[in-house]
From TrEMBL:
Descriptive protein name: Spore germination protein
Database matches in InterPro entries: Spore_Ger (IPR004995), UPF0353/GerABKA_families (IPR050768)
Matching Pfam families: GerA
Segments traversing the membrane: 272-291, 311-332, 339-358, 364-383, 395-422
Organismal lineage: Bacteria, Bacillati, Bacillota, Bacilli, Bacillales
UniProt organism field: Paenibacillus xanthanilyticus
Family per similarity comment: Belongs to the GerABKA family.
Keyword tRNA-binding: no
Keywords: Membrane, Transmembrane, Transmembrane helix
Amino acid sequence: MTSYVAASEQCFKEQFLGQSDFQAKPLSVGGTEYRLYYYETMVDSSLVQDFILKPLLARPSDPVREVVSILDYTETEHMEEAFEAIVHGKTVLHREGESRYYLLGADLKKGRSINIPTNERILRGSNEAFIENIDTNLNLMRKLIPSTDLVVNSYSLGRLSKTKVAVMYIKSVANLCFLEELDRRLQSIDIDYLDAPGFLDELVRETKFSLFPQLLITERTDRARSYLMEGKIVVVTSGSPDSIVLPVTFWSFFQSPDDYHISWLLGSFYRLLRLVCFLLTIGLPAFYVSVSSYNPQLLPINFANTLQSSLKYVTFPPIFETIAMMLLLEILREATVRLASPVGQAIGVVGGIVVGTVVVQSNLASNTMVIVAAMTGLASFIIPSYEMSSAVRLLSYPAVLLSSFLGLFGLVIFFMMIVIYLCQMSMMGQPYFTPPFALSEFKDTLIRSPIWNLRQRPDQTAPRNRMRLRHPRSWKK
């Protein structure tokens, strides 16, 4: 048997050849030979010392299962499983006279602490955000939803990356058809390296070339919990602080958890304001091109005279100055995001003021165009979803081009094309853009009704249990 242990050790060394942090440690306890295989950069040496080596030295003749005091304990007779356990940070123990391998979880736990969300501003609600450690993220959700109805299904995706993916849902509420379809799509992924959430978004989305986001991404734990309670599915991955929510509709990208922590009147107002800003971001630059080039008669006479006087000495036609100012706004935004925070803020403020002043004084753009560009940028930033905000800004470019050829008629055609395109989109078999004309859907889409009036969960996800509130304000007789 000793030769078998030696042969096994030789296989391990050949598998991990050239890896300086791989260790194959021989250990002799009470006349019995052991081998420990592990990455020294991935294991916690104190755990190995206290919960593996010391118990073995104290009870050398007892079975390993009874000696080692580690919760993460499994056995296997397949060497490939032992190889995989090592690359995940486990310690593999091999005992003389046995053909099985003991896989012991003594991996080193390191990661940043739980912090506030950095990409989603919090006005009210929880200040805890997801981090890169998937176990910590699942721990946060288990604490927020202390119920056996919260189910977690785990996957390992990527032939080389072995990315851990966890799918969460409430079994008494979620639609089983969505779960089966998502499981089919995840199981069919065959890729070497999976980086989430971007890779998952493109691999499981319904429409491959759509500019509109089809999965909602959030790092807020309270937001993920609220969607779980509505019957949706939340996916978290190792190495990313963002979670994925699906299936979602067009209206989900204009909702914020803060809407439910303030008065329902204010929440409704802000939600309507976001939808208005969605239309402004797409249509305001195109409307400027239309009225300045084709349809100035649509404006009041005083405003039309002011607009024409501001364009009198401008060098370029309205279409060129509009696209140039929109591109300049994107450049300033990217510079602000990519640079360090103090420097980025300074460049954003100084660059906006200086560039805006220079282009007007140089007659490269009109005063009105600078105002339109500023309003367009601000309107896009009010949308809670970064993905939807970016998509809306890109949509403004074809709207401007179409308006430069057909005027206001071209802008109307473009909005009609967007509505038709949204109506034919779907996600997990559910319509992506359902007009909220039904009273049950209108309550929590265009506006935010009072909590006591939201008796049922949204119908878009078709949950098995739609009843959310049974006896609202029952204290009042």
